[in-house]
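Let us work through a complete example step by step.
Step 1: write down the sequence.
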Amino acid sequence: MSEARSVSSTVEVEVDPATAFTVFSEEMDLWWMRSPISFWDGARAIGMRCEPGVGGRLLEVYDDATGDALELGRITAWEPPGLLAWHSSVDDVQIEVRFEPTPGGTLVSVVATIPEGGHDKGGTAFVRVTPAWLKRWVAMRDTTDHVPRDLGRLAVAVYYAKPATATRWLIDAFGFDMPGTVPDDDSADGWIEFHVGDCAVIIRKQQEDVPEGVAPTHVPWVFVDDVDAHLARAQARGATIVHPIEQYGYRAYVAADLEGHRWTFAQARPTMRRGVAAGV
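Step 2: predict the structure and record it as tokens.
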């Protein structure tokens, strides 16, 4: 049986604790970064909600009209402006978020505890994402519209033998703004993502499941309205399916074109489809 353990993170934001508490809870859908892997079901999610008060729910929302949503957590402490806590509904993780005044604003501390014998299936995500995502939104919230911003329908994945090292170089040389932390380990195929306007640049580890000399370095990502129908069309017209549709939070498949270049096609979220013609 595993021992009890905890992980934590902190970030200072330039607002008072009451405002920081409000931003964290009421504006969760604004500071939560929309990305291919930021939702449990990225093909259906339209937003994030935090219901106020003890017993309130943290929700990944799929349909406001029907109330269809995934409950991520149930609030166990609601003590503005100092404390917000919940028990994860997707695993055994318990989260405490504290808001403490500082000379420059508020220190936001996120502590995730996994009890003895408990499991973490993603409930600790708030520890990892809060410092970068919350700080970024607080810095811009007074000068931008309070409207959730989704990604565009085209992204690109760039593959490196040493992705973490390459990421640090890209940040230093090209000034990319990364909404997260850079991994320390070059050996793992972690997810690294930059945003350039409403487009994503995804940094991945060079693939090993391709013949030597033809490993892809740049793979376009295209978000489509119906990824199942898109796969059927691609197969019918002779595309080589490298990987069938798989679920990673997002749903996507990988195909090779007539010259062997790889393309990833992923299911667009409903919020990515507004005003866009059907098909691609």
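Step 3: interpret the result. Residues 275-280 have pLDDT under 50 and may be disordered.
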